[in-house]
Amino acid sequence: MQQPTINTIPLSLYVHIPWCVKKCPYCDFNSHEKNNSFDEEKYVQALLLDLDEEHGRCQNRTLNSIFFGGGTPSLFSADSIQRIIDHAKKLFNFQDIEITLEANPGTFEQEKFNAFNNAGVNRLSIGIQSFNESHLKTLGRIHDKQQALTAIDTAKNAGFKNINLDLMFGLPQQTIKQASDDIITACEFDVPHISHYQLTIEENTYFYKHTPVLPESDLIWEMQTQCQNILAENKYHQYEISAYSQAYKNSRHNLNYWSFGDYIGIGAGAHGKITQRDTAGLLQINRRWKHRQPQQYIKNTLENNALSGSQKLDQKDIVFEFLLNALRLKNGSDADTFKNTTGLDFEILKQTTKNISPDLLSINKERIATTDQGFLFLNKVLEDLLEE
């Protein structure tokens, strides 16, 4: 079998900014409330060194997207964000790159977001979560409805045309009408992309220790269905479990994850996946992760190395991780993508999924995807994969 060319595997960069104004009770991300230990300058220095070291593993590759996630990246100055973008541009090829910054209402200032736009950020992802005052308080958000509305206007006035709004459903005491009203309000802004996902209770969160009463599963199902109908009526197509976009406005960065592309992760607790050839010319996929605590990350990176650990994936891990990501996509994935990103024969997927019901999963010589029913019950499909 002809080996794929490494450089055809898309490459993205994830930059983790671990601080926020206040830790939300449902959040299990590596985020920390901003306090006296916050040192933006030292953290940026560490990020640049981290990126230098990662570049050595993937030289001469084009960077397709950059994503500043957190935490709340919009707490950083535009100058800091620009330094990171400019440094990446010196190291990698840039071609029509998508550069996303996560931002939360309550951190929006017109002048600052004008500067983010001038720094090279061309996509904003705004953490609205809800436009309902009561639900915002329950979720521990630092903004109110008016600040959420103002944030979107501020982003547009700063020149951002590519905007995503994050919204949640299945919230404590939430009704179907309230969930629908959130989506209707979001659609009225005519932004290119909306992320709509269910609140889940994760370990190591305040909500896990003090679990609120959530709506019954049947109510959540109806809530989701009605919201999806509203999104479809407003020309937002669902291309992933929780992602909806106008035509040709899919998130390139997230699509790269779901398509099993490569990505560099820099920053506290950031994870990366890099594909290289071994001495026999076969593809080798390695996962790498950085020190999780911000102060430890800064110290280790400035003095030695940001790396906390790494793992070479075996064939079983590669196949499962590919499916775990690709089956989140409405259209699944094709044989060429599988061969290019794994170096494996597509026939392996048929063997791996042979015991999953054809009512849930469709596979032929060219493509693998869930059926419409399987997409609705994706957790069932993934559970069946784990049992293989």
Structure description:
By secondary structure, this protein is α/β, with parallel strands linked by helices. It has helices spanning 40-55, 78-91, 110-119, 133-138, 145-157, 176-188, 206-209, 217-233, 252-258, 294-303, 315-326, 335-342, 347-352, 372-376, 378-386, and strands spanning 11-17, 19-20, 32-33, 62-70, 93-103, 123-129, 162-169, 193-198, 237-240, 243-245, 262-266, 271-277, 283-290, 307-312, 333-334, 361-363, 367-370. It is globular and about 60 Å long. The model is unreliable at 1-5 (pLDDT under 50).
Quick take:
With 388 residues, this protein is an alpha/beta fold. Helix content is 39%, strand content 24%.
Mean pLDDT: 93
Q: What would CATH call the homologous superfamily of the largest domain?
A: Aldolase class I
Q: Provide the CATH top-level class of the largest domain.
A: Alpha Beta
Helix-residue proportion? 25-40%
Portion in strands: 15-25%
Number of domains: 2
CATH topology tier name of the largest domain? TIM Barrel
Number of strands: 17
Summing up helix and strand content along with how strands pair, one would put the structural category as alpha/beta
The CATH architecture of the largest domain comes to Alpha-Beta Barrel
